[in-house]
Amino acid sequence: MATLQDIGVSAGINILSAFVFFIIFAILRLQPFNDRVYFSKWYLKGLRSSPSRGGAFAQRFVNLDFRSYVKFLNWMPEALKMPEPELIDHAGLDSVVYLRIYWLGLKIFAPIAVLAWAVLVPVNWTNNTLEMAKQLRNVTSSDIDKLSVSNIPEYSMRFWTHIVMAYAFTIWTCYVLMKEYETIANMRLQFVASEARRPDQFTVLVRNVPPDADESVSELVEHFFLVNHPDHYLTHQVVCNANKLADLVKKKKKLQNWLDYYQLKYARKNSQRIMVKLGFLGLWGQKVDAIEHYIAEIDKISKEISKEREEVVNDPKSIMPAAFVSFKTRWAAAVCAQTQQTRNPTQWLTEWAPEPRDVFWSNLAIPYVSLTVRRLIMHVAFFFLTFFFIIPIAFVQSLATIEGIVKVAPFLKVIVEDKFMKSVIQGFLPGIALKLFLAFLPSILMIMSKFEGFTSISSLERRAAFRYYIFNLVNVFLASVITGAAFEQLNSFLNQSPNQIPKTIGVAIPMKATFFITYIMVDGWAGVAGEILMLKPLIMFHLKNAFLVKTEKDREEAMDPGSIGFNTGEPRIQLYFLLGLVYAPVTPMLLPFILVFFALAYIVYRHQIINVYNQEYESAAAFWPDVHGRVIAALIISQLLLMGLLGTKHAALAAPFLIALPVLTIGFHHFCKGRYEPAFIRYPLQEAMMKDTLESAREPNLNLKGYLQNAYIHPVFKGDEDDDDIDDKLGKFEDEAIIVPTKRQSRRNTPAPSRISGEDSPSLPFSGKLV
Amino acid sequence: MATLQDIGVSAGINILSAFVFFIIFAILRLQPFNDRVYFSKWYLKGLRSSPSRGGAFAQRFVNLDFRSYVKFLNWMPEALKMPEPELIDHAGLDSVVYLRIYWLGLKIFAPIAVLAWAVLVPVNWTNNTLEMAKQLRNVTSSDIDKLSVSNIPEYSMRFWTHIVMAYAFTIWTCYVLMKEYETIANMRLQFVASEARRPDQFTVLVRNVPPDADESVSELVEHFFLVNHPDHYLTHQVVCNANKLADLVKKKKKLQNWLDYYQLKYARKNSQRIMVKLGFLGLWGQKVDAIEHYIAEIDKISKEISKEREEVVNDPKSIMPAAFVSFKTRWAAAVCAQTQQTRNPTQWLTEWAPEPRDVFWSNLAIPYVSLTVRRLIMHVAFFFLTFFFIIPIAFVQSLATIEGIVKVAPFLKVIVEDKFMKSVIQGFLPGIALKLFLAFLPSILMIMSKFEGFTSISSLERRAAFRYYIFNLVNVFLASVITGAAFEQLNSFLNQSPNQIPKTIGVAIPMKATFFITYIMVDGWAGVAGEILMLKPLIMFHLKNAFLVKTEKDREEAMDPGSIGFNTGEPRIQLYFLLGLVYAPVTPMLLPFILVFFALAYIVYRHQIINVYNQEYESAAAFWPDVHGRVIAALIISQLLLMGLLGTKHAALAAPFLIALPVLTIGFHHFCKGRYEPAFIRYPLQEAMMKDTLESAREPNLNLKGYLQNAYIHPVFKGDEDDDDIDDKLGKFEDEAIIVPTKRQSRRNTPAPSRISGEDSPSLPFSGKLV
Lengths: 771, 771
Description:
The structure is a homodimer. Chain A contains 35 helices and six strands. Helix content of chain A is 65%, strand content 4%. By secondary structure, the first copy, chain A, is mostly helical.
């Protein structure tokens, strides 16, 4: 049992370590040679280039201006300075709304913490149940338990305070959630309606085009939409199965890069011939002239590419039964995306086209029946993954003992039986299988989502996030509260009565408070502080820079800024919401720790989003209904657990009063779903019409067809300038990439973000605070 | 324990009573004075009129043609003769699809019964577990139990037969369900696409029109749709709150009827003055001249009506924030109904307009928030109704004893304490509260649906049916299997583990087989046979005819043909599906009884639909997804119970094999939902476009606006010819009622339905068997 003092010491250590991380970060980020790691966002946007070649050699790598070290925590206020509308412009709506999840945590838990400390802590503290228990039955208890509901005797009337507080917490949480949902729905609508013309506003993804004996997919699509949307159809792009072509193009790019490298080397070495070996890693094999070899290779692969491209374009089999259909107006696209086209609802499925960069190309051709089957299989697989993953891992672990190793590989016996090695292996092996599994889990979940057949990267991530959340709930939260593997829990839950389950968990809740406080500090505080160091990308960048980087392009590619990572990040935040809501009425002691986490994470991630993370796609906050739903789920779990806990405390009248809470919360959820969710699924016609009218007034002679024609070509056809003849044949695939206009061009090469946020941002349709 | 013989006797009695019902029916229906009761559908369609006044007096009332009595079961083949397309034309798609529910029962259970008797009965019979038990432990058992799974010893390998059979039954049921869903979806689409032009094809119901300070609702609606559907908007009709006006009109009609009556009497009595008393029921009060009095009264109420009408039309407060908006094409209406109009999804809600006669007018103006709250309240209320209804009823019953009566009304003491009366009361009272409650339950559920705010009668009935099904499942099925009131079950389920519940019920299932066989015979066989007698409408008609009918119009109104009554009928059928599926692998003995029920009910209801029932609305089989879903639910329940039962039989390997069944069934349900349900919710654009194109080619000069202008006026404004000035002011409310064209006019006065069905029916777009 940890005392308050223990917690204090632990908190001190964790705060200190976070502080150390920040100091290291402050030093590292000021060094020019780390510039690409800590300001990668600006490089990606083309607003910052490598440190100038001029100046002293040392200054190119190390910052010698000591004044800049003094204000080493300056990045924090800097991160908070950039106003929200500018941040949307800079990093996209997804990032901004993602930050608002942390902000939501602060808004929910700050008043709850104040209220809980003002009311519940005194109520809990002024009892002596635990002291009595100590004296009578020699039961040990910590100071923290004195602050919790455990300190209140059975049958006490004081439980009414907890019930009233549970109501207050629920009402406040729901109120904040509703306000936030409203704000974000408005932000999304405003974002969608904002100035920039985007191809996905005019385009609908059509899937499951039925096979036709007489017409090609392209003709069929054209005819169908000319007939059924006669006044609105503009153009379409069929989807090619270009996976093989994409591989070839990738290979060619690699060869080209080697060629560049050797040509550079050749120039430097004063035109000496450079020989390379062709075998594994250039270590053996026939020696040839490098430049000649690569030129020949590139030539060969270019021919292959043009052949494959010819095939993709001409072979009807490589055309997938899917197409991106564009309309003359946003109104018509909105209509087509929201309606059913034919009497068979598994054919001609229409949905909003995702952003071009958000499309997950290889899933576009999955037929309907297959989708249902895949979904079912994945549900079952996920069930087993969640509840039984520990079984194969335990099996692997049982093999991975020293005896096991010796059995399989007797030649290792000498090494293994060394005393030092033995202890290392014994300390290291047992956990390794589990840790490897947990490290790969997000990837496994992403693969499962891909198999399920989602057509956009954003929806893949949303599904993976949902599964990761469930996995965490079962295997982190529940497994920590009632110790035992998930399948044991499952078994005991199947054999327990439904009203016993909340009691079992509820009783264990107050006892686990110290554990979760430590968890929040280690995983939350230190984890967040560690995130800002970008340790892995930093090391990888310098390793690559030292050994692999051959050209400037390579250096560009050596940057690994990462992205928000919704599929892992959001479920982790949700765990803190769950902990906060569950412990608020039980052990208010935990709330300040949650608050510190949310505040710290908000600042750190805001900084990262401004300076580091790359924006991979823009789904316009399509994930918010999921976030909202999970907080509601956490709220209901907390209510059920409180019911269970008070049930065991014989607070007789509590149950009927508490049972209303989940019912009301579910009602609230339904209300929010109906009121706000459509903004995330459908596109109101009024908005579309307004925007169309505005545009036609402003640009009456806009060549929309030209604008849309190439928006949705497979990425492999983009940016190729060397096969014009094929492009002519394709007709639709032209060379210019679609440029989404950015307002930031005037600021090219602005040295540091810090100055920008001080400037006035251009007036946007957003007001600072959206209601 | 009932033996096979007992069951045989019981079956004999029930078959005999059904036979007696049929004979009585055959005699009654041939009497001309019952004509309006047994052929009311034909009267309602105007295809039959009262028996001719000519001929012998007796012949007008009694059928003296003895030859017609010989073939007294002739109505059965007659009922089956009318082909489906003609039946759709005659009684609507709803009725035909309703009949297909019984047909579905036959299709599912006939092969299952054959298979079960061929495989399961021998497997069960050739054991001696029960006999052994009889000898060893003196456990009694009946022959029926020997045919059931109870006769198989624990740990037996024979359970594999049951598992394989469970798979076979599931696969067969799912196959039939899928085929049927497909057929009915096609029927619905074909029906919607069929020749007749209907106002609801062009019309969308718009609700929650936001309040506007400057414009009236009508202007607002017009402007909104002119802006947002500029090329398609045609016209609209606002919804008036005419509930008070409707009352007044009803009152006037009644007075007019009395006036007619007295004028008739006056004419018959050779112009003697007729005096009436004004007091209660004409028993006391001031005596006045009847004709003069009623003329004055009608005059008064007419003035009131015109004043109220003026008010409804001119007072903006009486205009509800809802409107029926009509479009130029079906395509545009389909678009508007399926899309979201504004960024606030609680305003400008659009949905398909129900058929004019299907509209539930008083619910059109409920705002969105209120709807959510009402729904939540009704869910909670229904939960309590289902599980705790027995408590107030038990309380009433405890009061309704003889002692209770004497206490409340001492003056009844003499009567009550009479020995004969005492026994009557004691036999009668205890059940009366429950029986009254059960009789009123469907009405209570309908009121709950109305409160919930559905806008069409069909959706009201669907919701009521869902609730009635749940109620039956809990209070008939579960309460019979594990005897005890619902709330006791609820309590025991809350305290039992989830995998114990199927066991508890599963074990009880085979023991209740005889009870349910009797139930099927009494409630099913005799109930269906009783339905054809139309006893209540028959008695009511003759009572009204004798005492109340004053004019020919009254006689028209004295007919009470009733309707299918989806809200009570369908849940009752579902109980038989549930019983059949649950008992198929357990006690196959029950299946033939189910089959007889479905066959009998099919014939009887087909006859009733052709000859008796009135069609109140046409929802184009919108209820089928509910029917499908409930059969799936019954299937899953049956699988879980079988799992529970085999679990107690220690059929160790059974569980993992059976657990896949519900998972697969749920997967199948999701597939069907995605594949077929959209046909019942959305209207494909291709269909709409096809129909529009056809129509514009056929009738290029159609005045659609004229056709649609009055389709959706409140029924109270329809058919009034006496207030033309007001109508002019209203502008939109004209007198002619919308006539949905019928092909049957050429058959006016066809004497009996029997001849019709023999004729060739006009060729319809339906083929006899739709796939």
